């Protein structure tokens, strides 16, 4: 009887220690917007350098600066195109990991 109790205690302790050590899965960097440092939301691509940003991030930057946030080439919001492939990868990552985890903020 004592042996069974000891085994149960060992299992509980090892489970608790494993849960503490399990790292938070961070999304791959190619799924992260360089403007807001978060997973893409409605990913769009700029046609000058083919970099991808969140739709809102790109639109705000291009509308204010009239240039690409990546390479600085002249741009208008009309030139932004949806990046369906990249957004699908983001959606797949979220579905696989069951949540919308965000990376550590850049410093």
What percent of residues are in strands?
5-15%
Q: What structural class do the secondary elements suggest?
A: mainly alpha
Q: What distance separates the N and C termini?
A: 55 Å
Highest-level CATH class of the domain at 27-97: Alpha Beta
The tally of helices reads: 3
What is the chain-wise order of helices and strands? HEEHEH
Kindly report the name of the CATH homologous superfamily of the domain at 27-97.
Zinc/RING finger domain, C3HC4 (zinc finger)
At the fold tier of CATH, the topology name of the domain at 27-97 is Herpes Virus-1
How would the global form be characterised? rod-shaped
Strand order of the largest sheet: 2-1-3
Work out the helicity level: 40-55%
Low-confidence spans: pLDDT under 50, at least 5 residues? none
Q: Biggest sheet, in brief?
A: 3 strands, antiparallel
Compute the number of strand runs.
3
Mean pLDDT: 84
Task: Please name the defining characteristics of this protein.
single chain; mainly alpha; Herpes Virus-1; three-stranded antiparallel β-sheet; 3 helices; rod-shaped
In short:
The protein has three helices and three strands, in the order H-E-E-H-E-H. The chain has 107 residues and is mainly alpha-helical.
What does this structure look like?
- The chain is mostly helical and 107 residues long.
- The chain is 42% helix and 7% strand.
- The protein has a domain at 27-97: Herpes Virus-1.
- It has helices spanning 2-21, 55-65, 84-97; strands at residues 43-45, 52-54, 81-82.
- It has a three-stranded antiparallel sheet with strand order 2-1-3.
- A hairpin with a 6-residue loop joins β1 and β2 (52-54).
- The longest helix is centred in the N-terminal third of the chain and has 20 residues, at 2-21.
- The radius of gyration is 21 Å and the shape is rod-shaped.
- It starts with a helix and ends in a 10-residue tail after the last helix.
């Amino acid at each position: 009887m004592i042996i069974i109790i000891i085994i149960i205690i060992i299992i509980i302790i090892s489970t608790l220690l494993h849960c503490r050590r399990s790292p938070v899965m961070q999304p791959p960097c190619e799924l992260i917007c360089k403007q807001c440092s978060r997973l893409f939301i409605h990913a769009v691509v700029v046609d000058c350098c083919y970099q991808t940003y969140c739709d809102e991030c790109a639109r705000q930057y291009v509308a204010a600066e009239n240039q690409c946030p990546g390479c600085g080439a002249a741009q208008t919001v009309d030139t932004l195109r949806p990046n369906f492939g990249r957004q699908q990868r983001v959606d797949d990552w979220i579905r696989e990991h069951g949540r919308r985890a965000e990376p550590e903020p850049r410093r």
